[in-house]
Design brief:
The chain is built from 11 helices and 17 strands. The protein is α/β, with parallel strands linked by helices. The longest helix is centred in the N-terminal third of the chain and has 14 residues.
Length: 422
C-alpha cells in the first residue's frame, strides 16, 4: 500500500518553523526588539525555543500598537501582564500612548523598574494634566538617558542626581528653578540636553562640563553657561511669553546678547555647527550695534527663521552674519508676514563680504520686497558662493521670483541658483 504524503503546504510550513527554531538566540532577540510588543508576545506560539523569549526582552516599548480594537484587554492590563512575566534585566522602558491618561499605575511600574538596572527611561503623557513623577524615578541610578513629556518634577531631598546620565530630554515640564539647576549639575556626564516648553523657571544656568548638544525652546530670560567648554551644537527657540510674575524686566535682550557672546566668542569653545532656529529676534534686536564683541570664528552653519515684515528681525539676521566670518552654510526659513513691509530695503555690510559662505537655502519666501532685497544682498556679497536654493511659499509668486533671481548680479562666478517648486 502506497504511503500517503502530507500536503505540500503543511510540509512547507514545518520547514519554515524548523528554520525559525534553528535561529541563533541573538538573532531571535534582534527580531523581537524590532517588533511591536503585541507581536513580540505572539511569537511565543512559533516553537518551544521562542516560547519564553519575549519575557526576556531588554527593550520594552508600550505604545498605541499594544492595544487592539478587537479585544477588551486594556493598555494597563497589557503593561501589567508583560512586567509580571518578565525575567532578566530591562535596559530600556518606554511608555507613550496618545490615548492613555496618566494614572497611579505608572507609580507601580516605576517601582518595578527600580529592581532592574534600567539604562533608558521614556515617559510621554499625551492627555490630561502634567503628571507628577513619583519618587521612584529618582532611584533609577543607572540611567544614561531620561526623556519626559508633560510631567512635573519634584525630586526628594535625598536625590543625588543621575550620575551616569548622558542625555536629558524634558519637554512640557514644570520644574522649580533650584530643582532644574541641581538636576543639571548632578549629571556630570551629560552630553545632550533638550528643553522644550517648560515652566517654573526662567533662568538657564548650565553647569555641564561634558555638554556637546544643547536644544532649547521656550520662554526664558537668561542663559548662562557656567561650564560648557565642549559645546558644539546649539538649537535655540525663544518665545516672548514669560509670565508677568516671573519676568524681572520688560525685555531682557542684553542677557541674550551675553549668551551669544559666551557661546560664540569663547576662546575655549570650538563651534563646528550652530543651529539657530525659531528665534524671536526681538530679544536680540534692542541695542544691536552691528557685531558681537568678538567674531564667531568657529561658526560654520546657521539656520534662522525671519519675519521680513519686522525690520528689527532683519537687522538681527545681518548682525549675526556680520559676526560669523567662518560661515559656510546658511539656511533661512521665512515666516509668514502679518503685514507685508512696503518700500525697498537697503543693506550694507561695511566692506565685510561673507568670505566663506558657500551654500544658502531660503525656504518659504513670498516674493515680498524685503525678502527679494535680502536675496540680492547675499548674492552680491558672497564671493565664493556655490549654490543658492530658493523655494517659494506658494506657486503664485514663483514665476515673478524666477525673473528677479535671473536679473540679480552675482559676485561669485560659480554661483548656481536652484529654484524648487513649492
Amino acid at each position: 500500500m502506497k504511503r500517503k504524503e502530507p500536503p505540500k503546504s503543511h510540509y512547507k510550513m514545518d520547514m519554515e518553523l524548523d528554520r525559525l527554531s534553528s535561529l541563533p538566540c541573538h538573532i531571535i532577540e534582534q527580531i523581537l526588539q524590532h517588533l511591536p510588543m503585541k507581536e513580540a508576545v505572539r511569537t511565543s506560539v512559533l516553537s518551544t525555543k521562542w516560547r519564553y523569549r519575549s519575557s526576556t526582552l531588554g527593550h520594552l516599548v508600550f505604545d498605541h500598537q499594544c492595544v487592539s480594537a478587537r479585544n477588551q484587554i486594556t493598555f494597563v492590563n497589557i503593561v501589567d501582564h508583560v512586567l509580571l512575566l518578565h525575567t532578566g534585566p530591562i535596559d530600556m522602558f518606554k511608555l507613550s500612548n496618545r490615548d492613555f491618561f496618566a494614572t497611579s499605575d505608572i507609580d507601580r511600574w516605576i517601582l518595578y523598574l527600580t529592581r532592574s538596572s534600567v539604562k533608558e527611561f521614556v515617559l510621554e503623557i499625551w492627555k490630561g494634566a502634567r503628571f507628577t513623577m513619583p519618587s521612584g524615578l529618582f532611584s533609577l541610578k543607572e540611567l544614561t538617558h531620561l526623556e519626559l513629556f508633560n510631567c512635573l518634577l519634584k525630586p526628594p531631598s535625598t536625590f543625588k542626581g543621575f550620575r551616569n546620565s548622558k542625555s536629558l530630554d524634558i519637554q512640557h515640564v514644570t520644574v522649580a528653578q533650584d530643582v532644574f539647576e541641581n538636576l543639571i549639575v548632578s549629571c556630570p556626564l551629560l552630553e545632550r540636553l533638550t528643553l522644550m516648553n517648560f515652566d517654573g523657571f526662567t533662568d538657564l544656568n548650565i553647569d555641564a562640563p561634558n555638554l556637546q548638544f544643547f536644544d532649547v525652546g521656550g520662554a526664558f530670560e537668561d542663559v548662562n553657561f557656567v561650564n560648557a567648554l565642549n559645546l558644539t551644537v546649539v538649537a535655540i527657540a525663544l518665545y516672548d511669553h514669560v509670565p508677568n510674575h516671573q519676568r524681572r524686566s520688560p525685555r531682557n535682550s542684553g542677557n541674550l546678547l551675553k549668551f551669544f557672546a559666551q557661546v560664540f566668542c569663547s576662546d575655549t569653545s570650538e563651534f563646528s555647527i550652530l543651529i539657530y532656529s525659531h528665534v524671536s529676534h526681538q530679544y536680540l534686536a534692542a541695542g544691536v550695534s552691528g557685531m558681537l564683541p568678538r567674531p564667531c570664528r568657529d561658526l560654520n552653519y546657521l539656520s534662522i527663521r525671519i519675519n521680513f515684515s519686522d525690520w528689527e528681525e532683519v537687522l538681527t539676521a545681518v548682525f549675526l552674519l556680520r559676526s560669523s566670518p567662518a560661515l559656510q552654510e546658511l539656511e533661512i526659513l521665512v515666516l509668514p508676514e502679518e503685514e507685508p513691509a512696503a518700500g525697498r530695503t537697503k543693506f550694507s555690510i561695511s566692506n565685510r563680504p561673507f568670505a566663506q559662505l558657500q551654500l544658502v537655502r531660503i525656504i518659504s519666501t513670498s516674493n515680498t520686497q524685503p525678502e527679494v532685497d535680502f536675496i540680492e544682498f547675499l548674492l552680491s556679497n558672497s564671493p565664493v558662493l556655490e549654490k543658492m536654493t530658493v523655494k517659494p511659499a506658494s506657486i503664485n509668486c514663483g514665476w515673478e521670483l524666477v525673473k528677479k533671481l535671473l536679473r540679480f548680479k552675482r559676485v561669485s562666478a560659480n554661483a548656481e541658483i536652484i529654484y524648487l517648486e513649492p
